[in-house]
Design brief:
Layout: E1 17-22, E2 25-30, H1 44-54, H2 88-93, H3 95-99, H4 104-114, E3 141-142, E4 151-152, H5 172-186, H6 202-223, H7 225-228, E5 242-243, E6 249-250, H8 255-258, E7 278-281, E8 284-287, H9 298-305, H10 341-349, E9 365-367, H11 376-379, E10 384-386, H12 401-412, H13 419-429, H14 443-454, E11 471-476, H15 482-491, E12 495-500, E13 521-524, H16 536-549, E14 555-560, H17 573-576, H18 578-591, E15 592-602, H19 608-620, E16 621-627, E17 639-646, H20 651-665, E18 672-675, H21 679-684, H22 686-715, H23 724-734, H24 750-758, E19 770-771, E20 788-793, E21 806-810, E22 816-820, E23 823-826, E24 838-849, E25 856-869, E26 872-873, H25 879-893, E27 903-906, E28 910-911, H26 916-919, E29 922-926, E30 932-937, E31 950-951, E32 955-960, E33 966-970, E34 977-981, E35 987-989, H27 1001-1006, E36 1009-1011, H28 1021-1034
Parallel strand pairs: 11-12, 11-14, 12-13, 14-15, 19-36, 25-27
Antiparallel strand pairs: 1-2, 3-4, 5-6, 7-8, 9-16, 10-18, 15-17, 16-17, 20-28, 20-32, 21-22, 21-24, 22-23, 24-25, 25-26, 29-30, 30-31, 32-36, 33-34, 34-35
Length: 1037
């Protein structure tokens, strides 16, 4: 069942209407506030009308299609429940019409409602709607010359088209009833649904007709004059419409026979019909004009009336263009019609088959065959000075001339290309592009992971790294610090890094180190505070700092990733970067330890200066490799020099480069350093020279292919690289990186964090050490003295709560919390940084140097024992082993001076034996007020200043290292300690101690004992020493 909504042609506001059944057929009535139902038309009123007689299930309402005048009006949400306004009398009156359709009609109605193409349309300017059977392919053909926005399907007329009847006559009721009977007779011929026609209120129709009259006149006079005359040429099978001035549209009675729709002017008047032939061309309907126009379109006829002549241009003087406007070839952000012929030519040269894509790079190493490094005597006359070069066109000694020329030409192509367009094409063309920075700060971190794996983890797992030794590394010219973030992620706090880069805008962004926490990474900017690697004083100060913090050995490896913008000068990037090349290599020779490694970024290696620098590094290391990792974009000149196994006698080469840097700092363009090694010397090194040329040729070819590929992607913005997703997944898997996205660490309350760290063992936090007295000394520490380790502390009976020994937990950087009175309080009185997920048992100590007025005090955190260090649970380890890890942990956290951070130290643990009084030494010193105090020295480290630090002890804490039923004794014959099981009588020397004899953190802490010495008047050090000696020397084991 369908219906039509009347509206005016002049796009006046559409009046709301409500469907009310009248004489068996629903009709449209003007909206009235008295008949208001939820303020809008409700489909359920019509749907229920059919449901009552046809037992249909209520269907989901069809959607409206708003008219042009309603396009900006928001559609109202129609109510799912409506009031059935159909009265019983009206339902009974329509039974006679409904019963005739209980058979085929019921079936057809359900089929039509299930058709997704069938929908109710609401068009303001003369609607005319057609619905089709389920088997009908719906084709809407709109004749724009009709005053009724008519939609029909010519190809499916023969299959049956639902009839729509708009009547303005007074006798519409009789016509409706006759038409309904006719539909009952013709339903077997393919018509669907019913023939119910709608009555339009006379006043509403009168208003509508008054608007349509001028439209009819214009319509009949101008728009159809020629086309109506061509009906003689139409075939008999062509469907036609009969249109009367009264506006009545109906099907011809003989439609089923001749397959046409006649448009009659009136039922009483027999004027000649005007026929319209609709031709379906694809989804577009055109008006066929026929022979009367000689095959010319209406637009062409209109142009002829205005004086147009074929073959001549438009305008008074025929100055208009003769050729049609070509299809726009606009590319990306370019102007319309703008093109780059050189770019088009380059894109045609790109051959996808030449591109090599692989997960594992081929690393070609060049081994140093010389047994000694270069000396000052050998290099004293090697340097060549000359005018500064500003081109590399003739630099073909270390690369094929054709490759150098093609690289320069390929780069030049993009000089005039919009940078945004080029970057987008580069992103789409690179098969490794979607790897990006993975979960790190930037792409540099993934580059380092790529090279580390390609070199079999040369950097993060060096062969010269000893057990329980920190991995020392340096990151030079590498802000914002992607290289370091990767190393810290891989090694956690077991690596200590030193950063040296330009300050401010190019500085390290430690706050963005989400993957690898930066507490053990320390930045340095030199005495001038600018981080300039060219400055010789900065270089020397950085070397001194490294040697101090690495016990005079140097770092295990150094990374450098320096670069700067050379926009518009890409072809001479090598010349502009020569001093940066040199200084990075110079610093590496100054700070890398013997056997260490070095990786640095380079660009083109075509000039003698660059070739000579690589040669000098080749002579200073056991092996070198020039590689371009997958994570480096294939179209740029970037490559990396990897040097492995630094030799010990490289001092002369370092001094030589140091002297060259001083010359370059003069910026004398007439006396620029052109060569570091004479060409004659390089020619003698045939193996090195062949390696360099082979590397330049191979990388140059790959770069040319990458540049041509970008050119092709610039020309065709529909091209894309389909392998990007697979390359990301496979590469990350090969590099042993998780395929994750970068996320900011979530905030967590300390109460929730501690539960996550130690699970259900948080009751241990509130334990207080047992007080040592004369009464319990024999039952506690004297029962087995060798089981205990002790350390002097600053925690006393009257010490402030925030200075007493307790637990400290860190959630990263400055977010450190102290456990006081069963709650976690953030530390505000002490500037300290600890890695996230750290839980230690420690105390705050006031460290002092010198005496009297020269005294200097600083606060420090002294760690007695640890549960978790930087996410690493060490609670199940043996107490001395935990103590060694704590020392390593504190050394990694020690920041270079000057700084305003509190120091973090590991308490020194002493065995409780007869010589305890010699190990815990007490000295009397004068404080600022000349008041004497008993002080205890703090063992110095290589990082301490010359003055020995000390503090005022207030107690001694004892920690048990063996687990019951094991006890430790000392053999007099072997002078070695051993453990004995009191239950099984099993004994083992400490060197072969079973794990069951080792006390874990919980057992050690829960059995700790505190002795408030030296202020305990009942128990002195002398008395304790006597007890210990009597116990130990009297034990016969």
């Amino acid at each position: 069942m369908g219906w039509v909504f009347p509206a005016t042609i002049d796009k006046s506001p559409v009046r709301k209407v409500k469907v009310i059944p009248t004489d068996g057929c629903p009709s449209l009535q003007p909206y009235d506030e008295k008949n208001r139902n939820d303020g809008d038309y409700n489909d359920n009123e019509v749907t229920r009308y059919h449901d009552a007689k046809s037992n249909f299930k209520s269907k989901t309402k069809k959607k409206y299609r708003t008219s042009a005048s309603e396009s900006t009006v928001k559609k109202k949400k129609r109510s799912k429940k409506g009031t059935d306004v159909v009265s019983n009398r009206e339902k009974e009156a329509s039974i006679s019409n409904i019963n005739d359709y209980e058979g085929d009609y019921s079936k057809n109605f359900n089929e039509t409602n299930n058709d997704p193409e069938f929908e109710i349309k609401h068009i303001s300017h003369g609607p005319f709607y057609e619905d089709f059977n389920k088997d009908t392919q719906v084709d809407r053909i709109q004749d724009m010359t009709s005053p009724f926005n008519t939609e029909a399907s010519v190809s499916n007329v023969s299959k049956g088209i639902k009839r729509r009847h708009i009547s303005t006559d007074d006798d519409t009721d009789d016509d409706d009833q006759n038409t309904c009977k006719k539909y009952g007779e013709d339903r077997h011929k393919g018509f669907i649904k019913d023939n119910i026609e709608y009555n339009i209120d006379k006043s509403l129709e009168k208003n509508r007709q008054s608007h349509l009259e001028p439209f009819y006149e214009d319509f009949n006079k101008d728009q159809f004059e020629s086309s109506y005359e061509m009906t003689a040429n139409f075939s008999e099978d062509t469907p036609t419409f009969n249109i009367s001035k009264s506006g009545k549209i109906k099907y011809n009675k003989s439609f089923d026979d001749n397959k046409s729709l006649k448009i009659n002017e009136s039922s009483d008047q027999k004027n000649s019909s005007k026929k319209i032939c609709l031709e379906k061309i694809g989804n577009v309907t055109s008006n066929t004009t026929g022979n009367a126009t000689n095959g010319k379109g209406k637009a062409e006829l209109m142009m002829e009336k205005m004086g147009y002549q074929a073959g001549k241009g438009l305008g008074k003087n025929n100055q208009g263009r003769l050729e049609p406007v070509q299809t726009s070839m606009q590319r990306g952000r370019r102007g319309i019609g703008h093109s780059y012929p050189e770019l088009e030519a380059a894109s045609l040269k790109w051959d996808p088959k030449e591109e090599i894509i692989q997960i594992k790079e081929d690393m070609e190493w060049l081994r140093n065959i010389h047994h000694h490094t270069l000396t000052t005597k050998e290099m004293h006359d090697w340097m060549v000075l000359g005018p500064k070069k500003e081109t590399i066109h003739n630099e073909t000694k270390f690369c094929e001339s054709k490759i150098v020329k093609d690289i320069i030409n390929s780069k030049t192509i993009f000089d005039r290309i919009d940078k945004v367009e080029m970057r987008r094409a580069r992103t789409r063309s690179n098969p490794y592009e979607t790897i990006r920075g993975a979960f790190f700060l930037n792409r540099a971190a993934v580059k380092m992971a790529n090279m580390d794996k390609a070199c079999d983890f040369l950097f993060t797992k060096p062969t010269n790294l000893k057990n329980n030794e920190l991995l020392y590394f340096a990151d030079v010219c590498a802000g914002p610090g992607g290289f370091s973030e990767y190393v810290l992620w891989r090694k956690k706090w077991h690596a200590k890094g030193f950063g040296f880069t330009l300050k401010n805008e190019n500085d390290f962004k430690l706050g963005d180190f989400y993957a690898g926490s930066p507490e053990t990474f320390h930045t340095f900017y030199g005495p001038k505070g600018d981080g300039d690697v060219f400055d010789t004083s900065n270089q020397e100060a950085f070397r001194d700092l490294i040697m101090k913090h690495t016990h005079g050995k140097g770092v295990h490896f150094m990374m450098s990733d320096g670069g700067f913008s050379v926009e518009g000068q890409e072809n001479i990037q090598e010349i502009l970067s020569k001093q940066l090349y040199l200084c990075q290599c110079l610093v590496a020779l100054m700070i890398v330890r013997d056997g260490g490694s070095f990786v640095t970024k380079l660009f083109d290696l075509f000039t003698p200066f660059s070739a000579g620098l690589v040669y000098l590094m080749y002579r200073c290391f056991d092996e070198i490799c020039i590689c371009k990792p997958n994570t480096s974009r294939p179209a740029n000149s970037e490559r990396y020099l990897i040097c492995k196994g630094k030799r010990h006698d490289t001092y002369d080469v370092m001094k030589y480069l140091f002297h060259v840097n001083k010359l370059l700092l003069k910026r004398d363009e007439d006396k620029d350093v052109m060569e570091l090694v004479p060409l004659e010397e390089l020619e003698m090194e045939k193996e090195f020279l062949q390696y360099l040329r082979r590397s330049n040729n191979n990388l140059g070819k790959k770069q040319i292919i990458g540049l041509l590929k970008i050119a092709a992607f610039c020309e065709d913005n529909t091209l894309f690289e389909p392998r990007q997703a697979d390359m990301r997944r496979q590469c990350l898997e090969y590099w042993e990186l998780p395929d994750e996205s970068r996320t900011v660490p979530a905030f967590c309350k300390p109460q929730d964090k501690i539960k996550h760290l130690i699970k259900e063992r948080d009751t241990l936090l509130s334990y207080q050490p047992q007080k040592l007295t004369v009464d319990n000394i024999k039952q506690t520490i004297l029962s087995s003295p060798y089981d205990w380790l002790c350390t002097p502390c600053g925690t006393g009976q009257f010490t402030e709560p925030d200075k007493m020994a307790t637990f400290y937990m860190s959630m990263g950087r400055r977010k450190v919390y102290r456990y006081i009175k069963n709650s976690w309080d953030q530390i505000n009185d002490l500037k300290i940084e600890l890695p996230p997920d750290t839980l230690v048992y420690a105390e705050v100590i006031s460290e002092t140097t010198k005496e009297r007025k020269s005294q200097h005090k600083i606060f420090a955190l002294h760690i007695l024992d640890a549960w978790i260090l930087g996410g690493e649970d060490i609670s199940q380890k043996y107490l001395p082993d935990r103590h060694e890890l704590i020392k390593k942990f504190c050394e990694a956290l020690w920041k270079p001076s000057p700084n305003d951070f509190a120091r973090v130290r590991a308490k020194e643990l002493y065995p409780f034996d007869p010589d305890i009084d010699k190990k815990i030494q007490i000295f009397r010193r004068l404080m600022k007020n000349n008041r004497p105090e008993l002080t205890c020295d703090i063992p110095r480290t290589s990082l301490d200043d010359e003055d020995t630090p000390y503090f005022v002890p207030k107690s001694v804490i004892f920690l048990r290292s063996t687990s019951r039923p094991w006890f430790r004794y000392k053999s007099r014959s072997q002078n070695e300690t051993y453990v004995h099981n009191s239950k099984t009588n099993e004994s083992h020397y400490d060197i072969r101690r079973p794990p069951a004899a080792e006390a874990k953190f919980e057992e050690t802490f829960s059995n700790s004992i505190i002795w408030f010495w030296p202020h305990d008047e009942t128990l002195s050090m002398e008395a304790v020493v006597q007890f210990v000696r009597a116990k130990c020397l009297g034990t016969n084991r």
